[in-house]
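[Meeting: bench + compute handoff]

Bench side (C.D.) handed over the final construct sequence. Compute side (W.E.) agreed to return the predicted structure before the next meeting so the bench team could plan truncations. Sequence as handed over:
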Amino acid sequence: MKSNQGIKIALFLWMVNVVFAGPKLAKDLPPSNSTAPVDIIVQFKTQPSQVDLNQLGAYGAVNKISDAIKAFHATISPSGLAALEANPNVVYVSPNRTHQRFLDLTTSAVGANVAWQLGWDGAGVGVAVIDSGITLKDDFLTPINRASRVVYNESFTGRGNDATDHYGHGMHVAGIIGGNGTDSTGPAFSRTFKGVAPNVTFINLQVLDENGLGQESAVISAIQRAITLKNTYNIRVINLSLGRPVFESYKLDPLCQAVEAAWKAGIVVVVAAGNYGRDNSLNTNGYATISSPANDPYVITVGAGYLNIAAALMNHDLTTMPALSPTVARNPLTGTIGILRDFSIAWGDSMVWGDTALFGSTVFSHAAVGRLHGLGRFHNGRLLYGLGRFSIEQRFPAAACS
């Protein structure tokens, strides 16, 4: 009797697995009758055998991009996708998708000044900035012996070993996270632009090119490198100010699986919600526009808000540039909890507030030489790089975690 019951249970579980297993091929892959080679990322259940790797085709170069999620990057003929789908060791096949990049009062807005008074300034903590690179400036040197706080540099763009910033976004992000204000301090300056954790060390992992674009395989490789270097540089935080639209469940998405692997390795992963909050192409008024990997439940996903909290709450008028999601939030002024119709932070019951009164709804940090994007501004003779409301989205929690 018990034996029959066990067989029924086993049969039921098998049927559930069959029904809910889902397809192995991403919907945005080309059809099998296409002629152009396709750049793909393949996730395996177990480390692939030579037979598995041979299925990745005669086009050659097969690159392991992550031990943690057993992912490989390759270029194959679309006709080979069916064989990969039939391989029981293959979890999921997806395209090598393209990713894009998405201070004065901001530090006090998130309570950084209180942390500084308690001696918490990020000293001894490594932050992996996966972005367009970091160019060494005075703000990234130690104040006493002027040693570089950028302790590791590597480029995953395939354009050589130069990991300096040729776009401007990575410098901006790094300045907000951990600039120490040296470049805007002195009698010639009326304001000092200081990052939230001014003594952190930076692990500079460049994945975006001079146009602010990069491939998913590069981002996954950079996350794997951060995991590998975790103990060497005490990497406690990964900052991802980039992303792309969601194409599948986070349980299959290779980028989401990569950030989960980092979390399981003991690294806090902070991700931008995205810049699609004003996209109403699906008639959602900006909702359900959180990008990947910000949709993964293992990361801290945050957006931006106005400094005038009371007015914003009253008018439901928080910044709409980042991706939107119906959010439960706590007003730090009153302690009341409510639903915010137009706010983008998607984690916890608190929000990161910040804006700048000096320059309107723009946060200013470092500029990469020659990369203004129409948003540069001279302040006391120094060129600072500004991004709009979306720029303050998640760099603060990345530094706060430090």
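W.E. noted at the follow-up: Confidence is low (pLDDT under 50) at residues 12-21, 306-362, 367-396. C.D. will use this when planning the next construct.
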